Model the fold of this input.
Amino acid sequence: MAQSFLPVSSGTLRVNAYPVKTGETIAVGDPVRVDLDGLLVCASAASASLVGIAAEACTSAAAGTILGVYDDPKQVYKCKADNIDQVLQAEVGDTCDIVGSTGAFLANLDATSTNVIKVRRIGSFEDPLLTGTFPFNAGTELFVEIALHQFAS
Done:
């Protein structure tokens, strides 16, 4: 199965450890949040904010399970949209929701009720070692960052 959100960076990726809610199932690449008890849970389309993207996986987490999370508020991630016909340059700068479940999350460019992610780039990938840009996977993927981060000031 493909990873839902894949971190991309030209530098070091920041990963921090979080305790996971007992019984929770989280796949690598899943958007995650911290619940009211301070425990990591898999996000949903209704999540009001995110803490990051899971760097590790767990299935039916036991009490005391710790999971690594990409949690830098400025981290950029590569993902797919739920409707590839909407992956247009006009979406750059817009905020939208996520859709899906563990192991299969997508950017929902139609939904804007919680606006947890922001579209940064579509259809191109900038290589810092080259000049200009080049097509990226026929424009079916996009680059996003977390717009509503739980720990961003």
The chain is about 0% helix and 40% strand. The chain has two domains: 6-70, 76-146. The CA atoms of residues 71 and 109 lie 22 Å apart. Residues 134-138 have pLDDT under 50 and may be disordered.
